[in-house]
Amino acid sequence: MSMDFDTNQYVRDLITLYRSGKHSEVVALSKKIEHEVKDNVLAQDLIALSNLKLGLLDSAITHYSRSIVLAPDNPESHFNLGVTNRTLGKLNEAIDCFNKTIQLDVDHVDAYFSIGEIYQTKKFFDKAIVQYETVLNL
Q1: Cα–Cα distances in Å, from 52 out to 15, 84, 111, 122?
Q2: Which pTM was predicted?
Q3: Which of 18, 54, 55, 101 could form a disulfide with 111 if both were Cys (CB 3.0 to 4.6 A apart)?
Q4: What is the DSSP code string of 61-98?
């Protein structure tokens, strides 16, 4: 990369590729411009989402974790990290992420629902019902 890089243009390029469903290209471009976008929350989230869609879960966790360090009050990064952890079978970590999401956004329906699904999977039906009732009341 040249010294006169434009971080905003790289982020726009990532957005265009992501919106086009070109997740492999997002990941490939992100490897080329990693240094330039390492401190950009949107870029980290887009790279993580593309990794998640491609099943590159460890890389998705790395990028969501970077995003959370950069913007710890962004509920969507915590939620998506929870989704990734759930996909990996790390259910307790996923619940922690979803609870953090709710702490930051008390009306985050998907976080409550996701916790309910995990409790249902773990056969904690009473706890699952509480989460589902919360969804219905939002």
Answers
A1: 16, 7, 17, 23
A2: 0.86
A3: 101
A4: HHHHHHHHHH-TT-HHHHHHHHHHHHHTT-HHHHHHHH
